[in-house]
Amino acid sequence: MAKTVCIVGAGPSGLVAAKTLLHDTPECSFKVTIFETQSRIGGLWPTRKDDAGGLVHPLMVTNQSKHTVQFSDFAWQDSDPQFPRAWQVGQYLERYINEYSGADIRLGHKVVKADLQDDGSWNVQTESSEGSETATFDYLLVTTGFFGKPIWPDHVPKEADVPIIHSSEYRDLKSLLAKSTHHGGKILVVGGQMSGIETAATIATHLSSAIYSPGKKIIQEPESYSIHHITNRPSWVFPLFTSPKPAASAPPFLPCDLPSYNLANRSHPLTNSQGHISAEAAQASNLIYQSVLGTNQSEFSLKTKIDGDLLDDQPFVAMSSYYMNFVQSEVIKVRKGKLASINGNVAIISPTNEQISDIAAVVLATGFDPSPSLSFLPLSVLETISHSPEHPDLPVALAFHGTHHPSLPTLGFVGLYRSPYWGVMEMQARFVARLWASNDPQSQTLALRQALVDDDTIARTLALRTDPRASQFPMGDYSFLMQEFSRALDIPITPPVGDTPPLATGKPMDILTPARYPSVSAVSAQNPRAAEQTKANLLATHETALAGLSRGRFVAGAIFRSLLGEWRLERTLSSRLPSHPSGRFSGTARFLLRDGTEDGLSPSLVSKANSVSGTGLGLEYLYIEDGTFTARDNPQISFRATRRYIWRYDEARDVLSVWFARTDDQDRADYLFHEVEFLLPVDEAEMKVQGETTPMTTGAAAEEKEKKVKRGWLAKASHLCIDDLYDVHYEFNFKAVNLKEWKLGYTVKGPKKDYTINGVYRR
Q1: Distance separating alpha carbons of residues 500 and 264, to the nearest angstrom
Q2: Cβ burial 477-489 (10 Å sphere, 16+ → b, else e)
Q3: Which of 7, 212, 264, 570 has its CA 20 to 30 A from that of 357?
Q4: CATH number at residue 388
């Protein structure tokens, strides 16, 4: 007879647990019922673009790519972006549970009480619009996740003279400032870890767009607001695309998790890089992060700088495409310390007692308390699992990486820990299913029995609660956890699909993804489609790595991200016709981020982008340069010069483009100037300048004839303007992930034009 299982929560953890129990165990082993409080599946992840009622903004971008945010035997659609939006994750989960059906999913049913019976079964009481119900199950599986309720610090009033919300409530500037009594002022973001940095960058993006977008302003006087980020210590902030070759002069780019989870870079067998972090381990990790980013972050702000004694502290990381450049541009002002109090519209920062006045709103990025997600468990059970609300990072102490407690054999957990990578959730579900598949320990494999004997997770968790050197993600690093589960479950890692070019170290890309550990469904003949889906996942990862390493994919996106802010611009104009003076322009160029606009785009593209399944028009820059032009032959001829363009990045096509601004409304795009075509770099050891001159190889560069040189990413474009041909050349020079200098040159020829322009942009 099938054993009955109650799963609490229909988020990713609950759904993968149901699939595993129903499809990866002998047929009819389990009968699964899922109770979900919400009226939809998905947990944190909304399933529609307009579903804004949960804890996650539906348009939020994941901070790990679809190669990590995946289950092993269910592939993303080819059209989905590398970093899906939250609503796309919800739709992925809908497709997943439709593919692996069989569970009785009861939406709108909240589990309010679960009582453990003497025989080990569970009486589960639920409440819904239809009233209260009670049912008995052989097993109880808790998959309620880590985000029980937002943490609201005791010293922060819930009602104040200014709007105060938790970061999980933030959706847009208009709603944030709706209850503000005056226009302008400081928007405070409180909290320095992942959600704080992400929230500050999101608000900065919205504010920048409100200021620089054409048309009617979404809020009054947006330029009168500023953003102040209160953080106790700096974090390493990684963009979503990083390079596996950060020292290369023309670095390739990949989704950040692919280089991070390259198993070729670690010694085997893997050891746990998380938990207690010694000073030596901290130094090693901090130096690796500095190498990947190419900076100690001092160039952005001294308050984001990580050096000296901070290198001995356990590192903290965050993900954001635009945060650091907003800090550099002072759109986000970093304030070091902690929020001590709010009185009226004045905040006090400890320990310096600094006052921040004229506050317009406060957003608390203070994390989440998982304890409410466990409130239905009886006190005796909570005591057994060492439940401690005072330790929200480690609220319970469970065996074998957060899956069970030996004293409670009919109770299991999946996904109850910080940063539940989807592969780990899937492995936890497999582990619990294996434990419950047989009540006889002797029928378990030797590997599983030995893993249970050797396990010290409970003791380690309790020790970490009071460890001042506990890591940001104390339960263990992703790669190590996957290895430990694979050993216990006898699920060997499969080889990666295909070959990729070797890295500078000579090592390959051996990228860890959930699909490297296939499910029983995928390796058995009972479900050929599961095997196809697993293969599709592996092929997608291989194709992404190959495209990034050898075809220049994602370079355009990395450049677009890194352009944000202000540059010093020096440009020379050399004319071969007396009607056009030669001279020099000196000034600034600003790239001002805003929501993508429809101007100049085809109606079909706009319709597709804004459709139910579209991802919108993304972001674009309003480019404004301003400075002084001085004639070469007559320095007394000098005048102010300014011009505007709109720069766009098409994520689906991976194309960077430049558009002319309209003459009657210079905030709007008129028509396409050119699309940037990147040239694949020649091997640096073989690259030589052969003497030909272009706008990129004049002057000092031409003198390097027959010498080995290092060049950044080169690109070209052309534009025919009636009878005038613009031949465009670029060179983008990176230091690891950040653009440090770039050059833009034109050769213009026509009936009345014959000149070259060479410009250099520096921070």
Answers
A1: 13
A2: bbbbbbbbbbebb
A3: 212
A4: 3.50.50.60
> 3-class DSSP state for residue 640?
strand
Instruction: Using pLDDT thresholds of 50, 70 and 90, give the confidence band for residue 508.
Output: confident
186 belongs to a structural domain? yes
Identify whether residues 271 and 333 lie together within a single domain.
Answer: yes
Same domain for 192 and 229, yes or no, is: yes
How far is it, in rounded angstroms, from Cα 229 to Cα 338?
10
How far is 686 from 709, CA to CA, in rounded Å? 9
> Which phi-psi region, left, alpha or beta, contains residue 437 (left: φ > 0; alpha: ψ -120 to 50)?
alpha
Does the predicted TM-score (pTM) go above 0.85? Answer: yes
352 occurs within a structural domain: yes
Is 448 within 8 Å of 509 (Cβ atoms)?
A: no
Tell me if 543 is assigned to some domain.
no
- Residue 180 is predicted with a pLDDT of 84
Domain with 288, as residue range(s), is: 151-367
pLDDT at position 689 is 40
Query: Per residue in 399-454, pLDDT tens?
Result: 999 999 999 999 999 999 776 689 999 999 999 999 999 877 778 899 999 999 99
550 domain residue, yes or no: no
When mean pLDDT is compared across 38-42, 90-94, 436-440, the lowest value belongs to 436-440
Q: Taking CA 121 as the corner, what is the angle to CA 117 and CA 126, rounded to the nearest 5 degrees?
A: 90
Assign 64 to helix, strand or coil. Answer: coil
pLDDT at 706 over 50: no
| Same domain membership, residue 706 and residue 634 | yes
Last residue of a domain, one of 343, 367, 391: 367
* SS3 annotation, 429-474: HHHHHHHHHCCCHHHCCHHHHHHHHHCCHHHHHHHHCCCCCECCCC
Q: What is the pLDDT of residues 225-246, one digit of tens each?
A: 999 999 999 999 999 999 999 9
- In total, how many domains does the chain have? 3
Task: DSSP letter for 97, please.
Answer: H
pLDDT higher than 60, residue 686: no
Same domain as 614, residue 749: yes
Are 254 and 265 within one domain? yes
Q: How confident is the model at residue 171 (pLDDT cuts 50, 70, 90)?
A: very high
Residue type at position 545: A
527, 582: one domain = no
Do 215 and 160 sit in the same domain of this protein?
yes
pLDDT in tens, 183-220: 899 999 999 889 999 999 999 999 999 999 999 999 99
Other C-beta atoms closer than 10 Å to the C-beta of 430 total: 27
Output phi, psi for 404, to 5 deg. -165, 175
Question: What is each CA distance from 245 to 293, 497, 503, 634, in whole angstroms?
Answer: 11, 21, 7, 47
Residue 691 has pLDDT above 60, yes or no: no
Closest CA to 74 of 745, 393, 406, 537: 537
Q: What is the average per-residue pLDDT within 157-168?
A: 93
CATH number at residue 702: 2.40.128
Scan for tokens 């319970």, then name that residue.
396
Q: Are residues 121 and 47 in the same domain?
A: yes
75 vs 499, 572, 632, CA distance in Å?
A: 21, 51, 60
- Strands of the 3-8 sheet, one edge to the other: 104-107, 30-36, 3-8, 139-142, 408-413, 404-405
